[in-house]
Design brief:
The complex is a heterodimer of chains A (516) and B (145). Chain A has 516 residues and is of the alpha/beta class. Helix content of chain A is 41%, strand content 17%. The chains are: A alpha/beta (516), B mainly beta (145).
Chain lengths: 516, 145
């Protein structure tokens, strides 16, 4: 037996070298870690167990019979992250360029099946040249099997995708179907058709980086949710994200001890939002003043800056935060931020994270670009997401909340459980200037006046006084209370406590028809 | 555009020249305003003909005609206006080092001051606008080298 065990150990050690020392060196020279090094960084030390090391391809086409592919180019297994079980697969670029063959796909599918049964999150590390051409239709079919499982698992177990190398062609759809995409500058590339094909078909010239690098994916296409300067930082971000999430949809997010926000941030709440509604500010300062330890993990920070979304904790309990950012596009709601927020809201709802919405928006962004782009379809997503969500929903109106945009930011009618308004809140159909142009009585008064400019100013002030405030909404209990900004955190904690056991049902249906 | 109290025009129609006085009513050009541009109508010319067309006053535009913005001369990351508006302040100087997220300029649009921030770290190499410049969506504002 000793001899057999020794032979086994030697064989395992050999296969664990993947494509061999030379290719490992090449990977490092490119500034990239190997598949196994990445898993080392991801998992708690010594907790990762690899399975499927001895899997072999069975392809014989185009010379494949002579080709050995250790582990068929992917490392699969499970371990713990901060003591909680996580499943992972990591494509091995040193083995046939990490290309996906029939058995690589099978290993990944087997892992996804297991994770789904176990109810634990999956982390997929993508670093692959794409389909293994020699395996033809088997390789293609392999992708389909993965996509199908990504979809079945969606909303049941969190799925995170790291793009730590090329990810092109159909391969992009696995990450595209998962919940979160992480990229690294100068390492990650993600696109369906690459620069060469684009040049041939449309004549456009564009570099890999410009087309689908980390920066483009994060700020232009909104495909990447997180970017990092290097792989170690990226993997640290993954660990951080996992700390906010439950293992599966039937679990509650893990609670930590509560932590007060930084004193400066909390004290700054009284002055964080300017009383003059034209003045900008960074809503992240408000968030910092409210959440545990002022710790806010922003999502898609480089995309659709007119809304800020991300994870935080209140009283130790993870929550999802959605806030208008008034200093960008005047805080108007547009296509991109509607998409960004709606997806985030639905993720939080799927995984039992309460929603905290901070409101300061004057309306939707005007313009033909928005209209032709389908702001109606995209904006509808936001309304749908909030209405559909059954997690506790808390809304704080900081300043402007006009018209449809007020509704879209989780108003009472969309099922907000508690709505608080700051004294600066202006909950109204529209701003005073706009209203004065439309309301017939005002128009007549201005036109008939001796000094129309002065009359206009008076009417604007009158409207502002009468309507641009929180009191009308409070009178109808569309707002539960108007509060001192310094009381906001306390009120949120009390509300969350009171709503801890919230359960809400929806009419039975196969699934709704989400506007897309 | 300089607002004037009244302007006189000689208009020749059908061989007859009329002198027409036109009075501008409404806001001066330059500030974006929601009030639609008022069109001053001309008083009827002296010999009354069957509906001689009244010349339209030069429209006192609610938004001043924006001259075509320059494109940057040198290389670097061009930071463009994310929405149409007016530059109310430029916060940096040529040669200044900036970090990603630093405010480069402030645009007034939709009754709000909008911060235009640096997308990356670098040195400001060109500034193409100044306080008071009206800009359209996509106009180049600042170049970071």
């Amino acid at each position: 037996m000793q001899e057999k065990v020794a032979r086994l150990a030697a064989e395992a050690a050999r296969l664990q070298k993947g494509g061999g020392e030379q290719r490992i060196a090449k990977q490092h020279e490119a500034g990239k870690l190997t598949a196994r090094e990445r898993l080392e960084l991801l998992f708690d030390p010594g907790s990762f167990t690899e399975i499927g090391l001895f899997v072999k391809h069975r392809s014989t086409e185009l010379g494949m019979a002579e080709v050995e592919a250790p582990g068929d180019g992917v490392v699969t297994g499970y371990g713990t992250v901060e003591g909680r079980t996580v499943y992972a697969y990591s494509q091995d670029f040193t083995v046939l360029g990490g290309s996906l063959g029939e058995y690589q796909a099978q290993k990944i599918c087997r892992l996804l099946d297991m994770a789904l049964k176990a109810g634990s999150p999956v982390v997929g590390i993508n670093d692959s040249g794409g389909a293994r051409v020699q395996e033809g239709i088997d390789s293609l079919n392999g992708y389909g099997e993965i996509f199908y499982r990504n979809t079945q698992a969606s909303g049941v177990i969190p799925q995170l995708s790291l793009i730590l190398g090329p990810c092109a062609g159909g391969a992009v759809y696995s990450p595209g179907l998962t919940d979160w995409i992480f990229m690294v500058e100068n390492t990650s590339y993600m696109f369906i058709t690459g620069p060469d094909v684009i040049k041939t078909v449309t004549g456009e010239e564009v570099s890999k980086e410009k087309l689908g690098g980390a920066r483009t994916s994060a700020s232009v296409s909104g495909v990447a949710h997180f970017t990092a300067p290097d792989e170690a930082t990226c993997i640290a971000q993954v660990r951080r994200l996992l700390s906010f999430l439950p293992a599966n949809n039937l679990d509650d997010p893990p609670a930590l001890p509560s932590a007060e926000p930084a004193a400066a941030a909390a004290d700054g709440l009284l002055s964080a939002v300017p009383v003059d509604p034209n003045k900008p500010y960074d809503v992240r300062e408000v968030i910092a003043g409210l959440v545990d330890g002022s710790d806010f993990f922003e999502v898609q920070g480089q995309y659709a800056g007119n809304m800020v979304v991300g994870f935080a904790r209140l009283g130790g309990r993870p929550v999802g935060v959605i806030a208008n950012q008034a200093r960008v596009l005047a805080g108007c709601i547009d296509i991109n931020c509607s998409d960004k927020a709606a997806r985030f809201i639905r993720f939080c709802d799927a995984y039992n994270l309460p929603l905290l919405t901070l409101v300061d928006t004057p309306g939707y962004l005007p313009g033909t670009a928005q209209e032709y782009g389908g702001i109606i379809r995209h904006g509808a997503k936001l309304l749908y997401a909030y209405s559909e969500a059954t997690v506790p929903k808390l809304t704080v109106v900081l300043r402007k909340a006009y018209g449809g945009a007020y509704l879209a930011m989780c108003a009472r009618s969309l099922g907000a459980d508690q709505v608080f308004a700051w004294p600066t809140a202006e909950i109204a159909v529209m701003g005073a200037d706009g209203a004065v142009n439309i309301v017939a009585a005002y128009k007549q008064a201005i036109e008939g006046a001796a000094d129309p400019a002065k009359a206009r100013k008076e009417k604007v002030a009158e409207y502002r006084e009468r309507f641009n405030n929180p009191w009308n909404a409070a009178a109808r209990q569309l707002v539960d209370d108007v509060i001192d900004p310094r009381q906001t955190r306390a009120r949120l904690l009390a509300a969350l406590g009171a709503l801890a056991g919230k359960r809400e049902t929806r009419p039975a249906k196969k699934h709704g028809n989400l506007p897309v | 555009m300089v607002p004037l109290a009244a302007r006189k025009f000689n208009v020749t129609i059908g061989g007859i020249t009329y002198q027409v006085e036109v009075e501008e009513v409404g806001a001066a050009g330059g500030a974006p305003a929601i009030v639609p541009a008022p069109v001053a109508s001309a008083p009827p010319p002296a010999p009354v003909r069957s509906a001689p067309p009244a010349p339209e006053a030069p429209k006192s535009a609610a938004r001043a005609a924006t001259p075509a913005r320059q494109e940057p001369a040198g290389a670097g990351e061009v930071v463009r206006a994310p929405l149409p508006g007016m530059v109310v302040s430029v916060r940096v100087e040529v040669g200044q080092r900036v970090k990603a997220g630093d405010v480069l300029a402030v645009l007034e649009a939709m009754k709000m001051e909008n911060d235009v921030t640096a997308p990356t770290a670098g040195t400001v190499s060109e500034i193409l606008v100044e306080k008071g410049t009206p800009v359209s969506l996509g106009d180049a504002l600042v170049v970071i080298g």
